[in-house]
Amino acid sequence: MLAWQVDCGVDEAIAEGPVDRFDRVPVAVPEVRTEVRAEVADAEPSVVRIASACGDLAALRAALAAFEGCALKRGAKNLVFADGHPGARVMIVGEAPGRDEDLAGLPFVGRSGQLLDLMLAAVGLSRGAEEAAAAVYITNVLPWRPPANRDPTREEVAMMRPFLMRHIELVAPEVLVVMGNAAARAVLGTPVGITQLRGVWAEAEGVAVLPMFHPAALLRDGLKKREAWADLLALRARLDAGAS
């Protein structure tokens, strides 16, 4: 590692000893709510009725499986519904499945998902945790993969939003983490991009919302990992404050 750093041009140490970034000091995280305005168009009344009629997660999954109103379903191999502990304190909302997720039928299982698992583990959270206090529950705005992994359109987000909001209502998390532009747009109804939103606490449907960069963005631009780590620490601090 030292040789690699020398090859990269590192020629000076900024501290006499290593810094343990995992040795977190609990801090109070003030809640700052963002001012947002509705941007996502209203969904069809029939879609709202279908979503509202779902009394539990099994019914919601069945309703999505039977829904024929979204053209993405015809090109997808699997419905990607959710993963993790439905009783978790933290619910994560991504944008849409990719190729790996479409094949597995689970959200965040490709490179982005592997990075997400590492990020969560760094603050004591896991989708595989049996105890709700250490678990997360993960879903996406869209349950079907867009062609060529393109970004979700505003029309697609608007169509599937009632299902997402019912999903959030049924899970009733303590904290909602929205990752990426489409997730922030769907939950917060804002035209503001994730670069401006990230790290600033908001609220939707009575739930605290923390916007973050999508892990895919971190893979494309490693410099964003600093902001992502700060957001993870803010999430951990809020959970710790709630537990105490």
For the record, give the distance between the C-alpha atoms at the N and C termini, rounded to a whole number.
40 Å
What is the overall pLDDT average?
A: 90
* SSE run: HHHHEEHHEHEHHEEHH
So how many helices? 11
User: Biggest sheet, strands in spatial order?
Assistant: 1-3-2-4-6-5
* Overall strand count: 6
Low-confidence stretches: 34-38
Helix content bin: 40-55%
Rg from alpha-carbon coordinates: 19 Å
Which secondary-structure class do the elements indicate? alpha/beta
Biggest sheet details: 6 strands, mixed
Binned strand content: 5-15%
Shape: globular
Provide structural commentary.
Strand 5 and strand 6 (207-212) form a beta hairpin. It is built from 11 helices and 6 strands. With 244 residues, the chain is α/β, with parallel strands linked by helices. The protein is globular and about 65 Å long.
Summarize the structure.
The protein is an alpha/beta fold and 244 residues long. The protein has helices spanning 2-7, 45-52, 57-66, 72-75, 99-104, 111-122, 154-171, 181-188, 194-197, 215-220, 225-243; strands at residues 83-84, 90-94, 136-140, 175-179, 202-204, 207-212.
